[in-house]
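pipeline: protein-struct stage 2 | run 1193 | Membrane protein
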Amino acid sequence: MGARFGLSLWVAMRKGPLFKALDENGGNSAEGDYAGGAASAASLSHAQVLPESAEPATPTPSGETASDGPGLRERIQAWKQDIESWCEKVELAPDLATDIGSPRWYRGLATLFGLSAAAIALSPSFSSVEAATPMPVNDRVRDEFRSQTIAPLAFGADSGRHMGASPLVRPLAKVPERPMIQLVSTLGQGDSFRRMLERAGVGNTDISQVSDLISGAVPLSDIASGTQFDITLGKRPTEGASRPLDEMAFRARFDLDLSVERHDGALALVRHPIAVDTTPLRIRGTVGSSLYRSARNAGAPVAAIQSYLRAVDKYLSLENDISANDEFDLILSYKRSAKGERQVGELLYAGVERDGKPRLQLMRWGKDGQMFSASGLAETRSAPIGMPVAGRITSRYGMRRHPILGYTRMHAGVDFGAAYGSPIYAVSDGTVTYAGRHGGHGNYVRINHGGGLGTGYGHMSRIAVKNGTHVRAGQVIGYVGSTGLSTGPHLHFEAYRGGKTVDPLSIRLVTRPQIDGKERDEFRQRMRALLTVEPGAALDSFVKPEAEQAADTREIDRLEPKKVG
């Protein structure tokens, strides 16, 4: 009713004045205007309301009069107001968190499902829609697109891209094989020559022939692991058959290259000797504050310095018998190939000079490769025991307070501080009588040197010999560790005489000449030849003989124009 009354009131105002005008005395004004104040308006009665027929009907643009009823806009507005009033009264969307289970709550749930169903029904589909790409297409991008289509075939594949598969691409029924395959195969650690060729795809027949040819030049077991083989395989004789071996080349030795080539259907071995210079490498220098650092500064390899120190230590004390002004002299076997490779070998000569005169001269001699002194070829002499490890003395033989047990007791050996994993050497020839775990000594090795003399080595991280093994002086028998009762990596070195421990630093080993009269002249002649080598002569550039250079020159290199000037 309120809505209808409001609508009627609005229509009446559109038709004309709603109330009659009053005069100054509160009556109706003949002019039709309203001159009274606010107090006069309150005194209006229902009788003063103008009747609907008091004013003439106002014509509408369509020719109808307003007396015919409200127009379409007014009716729509009235319907809208009625619907809003009904919705407010009914409350179609209540709060679903309250009054759960009531009719009002179920009415709200129905509204939720209805709106959700309408949203799903009116939602757009997910089908693709063609549209122009927003990305600018330049020449580079165009090449990228074209490389994924069949277009590169028409343009000679100038984009350099692989063609992507498309409906226009059809697989070939049969693809022609390559007429030749070139590859590099490497002989691995613990691998065999035959397995290496099988992995490369060489047939069993060719493998047998190649093995027979190469074994006639060098033993297959002597080919070092890591050697690379350049292999060329030819075209298969029939479908499914192995490819034949056309050529194979590799470095067999430092001074020899070998190749297997196929000529007229048969494999043949071709030798390619490499010129090698064997001038020994001689290094000299002043001892200074440290023999090791001075030798390293002079360019001596670490392994050569260690061999030098072990050899000299058997005859001279490195701490007391060698002064800073003395000169060291060591000569190593050395090879240089015509291809530029260099190979450092074992220690050949170890010498110490004082005031320009030789104080000690040692040279490697014999099948066992032992170091012999030039001055001791005809005499028996004794020398202090050598150093079992490259390190420094941290605890000597005698009574001391044990660092772990905490009380004073006999220390029946000498401790040498060294880096973890440093090699431990036998101080003299002998036989291993014990190798294993030994109480507080940890990993322990004991060697019997004969004549009632023995040595022991404790706290090893790893043992390198077995019980009953015969060892040579300077042979590695284990590695420095910290097993047993130990506070850190070091070597506990003991010496025994008649089964009782003695100070290892007080032992002197008796050496007797082991070279008879027939070999003495050869020994001295060999030493004189070594001493004529100039220091650093082996480091000079190696020039092959002219005949060998001409043989190695290729035909195509001879056609190259010569430089003038």
